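[Solved] Which block belongs to which protein?

Original post:
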Amino acid sequence: MILEKLWRKNIPDNPIQELEILLSSFSEEKHSSILNGRHLTISDWTPIQYLLLEDPIKHLKCLHFFVERGVNLCGFSKKRLTFFHLFLVLFFYRGEFRDERHVEIFLDFFRYAFPQQSVFLLTSTQPFTLMDLLIICQKKKLFPYDYFPPGKSYQYSPLPQHLYDLLYISMMCYGCKLYSQNLESPIDQIHLNNCTFYMDKYPIFKEYLTHQFKLPPLLSSDEIKKRIQLLKRYKAQLCLISEQNSQPLSKTPTSCQIFINTELMDNCHLRDSEFFEHISDDIRLHKGYLPLLLSTKYHPYTRRKLNDTDIQIWLKEIHESQNFPISTLEENVKHLPYFFFDCKIMDKFFTIHALFHFIDQFFSVHHPYHQISTLIHCPMADIKYIANRMLLETKLFSKFKMVRKNPTTLHLAKVFYQYCLESDKYIVTMYFLLEEIFQDIKCFYKLKEYLDDVEENYFFIFDEYCCRFGTSNPQFFQKFLQNLMILKDFNRQS
C-alpha cells in the first residue's frame, strides 16, 4: 500500500534508490509485505505491476531488484491479476508490448517462479489459467479500458500470428495448462515426425526437447529427433539402465555425491544440467529451488542462512538455460510420438480451489494463522451452520442467505470471496466469527453422542463449556447449548 501511494501517479527515474531509502525506515520483517504490496492490505496494483504498467524494459533492473529480494511473482493484487497475468494481458492492450523483446522478458521471469497453473478470476465462477488467458484474449476484448490505472493509453488488439504462436509454444513448453479453453492450435499436436520444423523455428522448443529427453546441449535438430526415436525404440530398457545409477545423467563424473530436487524423485531420472553447478554445503540443488531460495534466503536441506554470494551465483547460472518444470525421461518417452500431454486441467473442483486460494491470501494479510482452507472439506451441515451464524451474529453479511438456501462449498466460497474484495473490515470480522464457529463445530463432534439426552449428560456438556470458555456463566452456557442443538438439527437434515 505504501509503494502504491508513491507510484500511483509517478515512478521516479531511480526507483531502486527510493526503495532502499523507504525500506531503511521499516524493520526488516516488514520489507517483504511492503515489496509484495501486502502491507496492512492487498494493493489494487502491486509495486512490480506498476513498474510493468509503465515500462518493463525501462524498469528491468528494478524488477530484478524485486526478484532478488524474494517478491512473489505469482502473488495477486486486488485486481486479481498476478505479475504474469498482467504482463500477458498487456500484450493485447499496449501496442509497445507487441514485439519479441517483450516476449523474451516475459519468458525470462518464468525462471524465478512457476506460474503455470496460477489463476485469474474474472468473476467468482470464471477462473482462467495463464494459457486460458492467452487464448481468450486473442479471441476478444476481455477488460474494459478503465480496468487499468490511468496515465497510459490502452487499446485492445489481437496479437500478430507469429507473436501469438511464439507465446503459445513457449508457454506449452513451460507446462502451462488450460481449464476453461480448449486446445485448438497445430502446436498442441507436434509429434515426432514434424518436430524438426518447430525446433528450427522456435529455439525454446528445441531446448525443451533437450530438457525433456535428457539430451546433451548443442545438438542439431535432426540429431535430437534421431535420439528421441532411439529412446522410443528402447523405452522398455530405460528403467533397467536408470536403476544402476544414483546420480543424475552426466557426461563426466561429478565430485558431488548429494543432489536434491523439488519433487524428491530419484536423481537418476534427471540430468546434471538441471542442477546448479554451484555446490552449497556439499549439495547440488535442482534449479527448481530458485523461487524458494530467493523468498526464504535459507538452504532447504541444511536450513543455513544463505549469503548473498551463493544467491548471486545461482542467479547468474539460471540464465544459462530455461528453468523448465521438472519431469522424468520415462514419462516423456511414454507419451511419444506427441510432446505435449496432460494439457487440460480436469479437476472438477478447480474453481473452488481457486476461490479458496484467493480467500486464503486475503485472510493471511491480517491473520496469517487462520483456518479458512479447512472450509473446502466442510460437510453440508457445517456449511449451513456457518451461514446461519454469519447471518445472526451481525447485519454485515446478508449475502450468506444464498448459502443457507443452497449450502454448497462453491456458494460458500463465492460469498467469502465477494466480501474479501469489498472491504478489509469484512475480513477481520469474518475471521473472528469463523474462529468461534470452528470451535462450536469441534465441540459438537466431541459431544455429539451426549446431545440426545442433555439432562442425563448435563455435566459432561457443561464441563466442555467450562474448558472452552473458562467461565461458568449460565446465560452463556445456554447460548453454547443452543448452538450445539442447531448443529445437531442441521446434521439430522443432511
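(Second protein starts here: sequence line, then its C-alpha cells.)
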Amino acid sequence: MESHEAYSQLEKKIKRISNLSDAISLLSWDSQTIMPSGSSDVRAEQIATLSVLKHEEMTSTLIFDLLAKIDTEELTDWQTANVREIDRIYKNATALSAELVDARSRAQHHCEAVWRMARKDSCFDLVAEPLNQLLEITREIAAVKADKFNMEPYDALLDEYEPGAKAENLDTIFDYLEPRLTQLLQNVLEHQKKNNYSDISFQVSEKKQKKLGLKLMAKQGFNFQKGRLDKSAHPFSGGIPDDVRITTRYDEQDWASSLMGVIHETGHALYEQGLPRAWRGQPVGLARGMVLHESQSLALEMQACRSREFFTFLAPVIAEEFGVTGVNWSAGELHQKCLRVTPNCIRVDADELTYPLHVIFRYRLEQALLNGELTVKELPSAWNEIFMNNFGFMPPNDKEGCLQDIHWYDGAFGYFPTYTLGAMAAAQLFSTALKDKPKTLSNLEKGDFSDLLIWLREHVHSWGSYYSTDEVIKRATGSPLDPSFYISHLESRYMQ
C-alpha cells in the first residue's frame, strides 16, 4: 500500500470516529438542556455505548497499521500535522481499556445527574458518594496514562484539555500571579472607594434578556444557520463546528450576568465556527485546546465588551430593549458599573480581577483531591476555608460554594487552570489586535466586531490544531505567553 493510499484510508477512518464524537457531543448537550430528568439512566447508557464504540474504533489495529505505512515526506504540511495529531490521539486512546472508558462515561453521567439535584437542594452529601466513585476512576485513568507516557498523573489529566501542559509550569505562573492579584485586589478596592456607583438593578424578563443576547450574538458574527442559543443550569458551549450549541442561565434580577454569559459563550462558538473548513472531521481541524478556547471567549467578554467604546454602543440598545432612561443608564455609568470589582461567591459571575483567584484555588483543591491529601468528605470545609482566606468571607451554602461548578462532577479534572491561562492569552492577543487593527475600538462604538473577528480568524481560528498553543500565541503576538502582560492589563484598567 502506497503512502498516499494509506493516508486516504486513515482520513476516512478518522472521519467515521469524528462522527461518533459529534453524536456524543450533541447527546451531552441535550442532557444538559432539554432532556427530561427521568431520562438520565437511558442517556447514560446511550453515551457509554457510543463512547466505547468510539474507543474501539480509535484503538483498532487498522489505525496502527495505516500510521506505520505513511511517509510524511510525501504529504503536505497540513496532512503531516494531521498525522501527528492522529498519532497523539491514538496513543492516548490505546492507553485505556474499553472497560475503563465505559466505567468513566457511566460515572461521569451519573455524578453529573446527581449533582444537579444536590446543587438545587444545596446539599453536598447527596453527591459525595458519586463524586468519590468518579474520583477513584479518574485517579486510575491518570495513573495508567502517567505510566504509559512517563509523566505525572495530574499532567496526564491536564493533557486532555491542554496538550503538553505541565503542573510545574502552572505552579510557576500561579505563584507569580497569586500574590500580585491579591495585592492588586486590595489596591483596587481602596481605589474604588472614591467612586459613587449607580444602581442598575432592574427586573428584566427572561424573554427580553434572550432577545438582547441574540442581538449581540449577531453583532459579534455568530452564524445562526449553524448554531443556536439555549438555557441551562451552567452556561456552556457544546455541539460541533457546524452545529454549535451555546447556553446561558437567566436571573431576572441580574440581567448583566446573563448578557456577559452569552457574550462569553459566543466567543467559544465563533472559534468553533471559524476553524478550517477544509479539515472538518480531522484532528488538525479541531480547536487547539482549552487555553486558546478560553482566550477567544475572554477576548470578547473581558477585553472587547468591557471597553468604554463597547458601552457607547450598548447603552442605547439597552435603553431601547429594556425601556429604561436616565443618567444611571448612560454609557459612562454602565461601563463604570461593569468594571466595579466586587468579590462574590460565584466564579462565573466574578469580575475580571477576582476571577483568576477563583480558578487558582480550585486548581489547588483538585490537585489535593487527586493525590489523596483531601477527601471528598472534606471538600466543603476545605473550600470554605480557602475562600475565606482569599476573599474574607464564606459562601452561605454549598450551592454557592463547592457545588456551583459542574466540572468536577462531570469528571473534568484538569480543566480549571485553562481559564486563567486563557485570560492571560486573551489580554495578550487583544493588545496585539489593537495594534494591528487600530480601528477596532472605534468600530466597537458602532457595534462592529468585524476587525477583531477578522484578526482572530487569521491568527487563531484558521490554524485549528496545526500549531501548538504556545506557537499560536508567539506567532500572533511576537512573544510567548507571559503573565506580566496580564497584570499590566489589570493595573491599567482598574487603577485609572
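Accepted answer:
You had them paired correctly. Confirming on the second one: Residues 3-164 form one domain.
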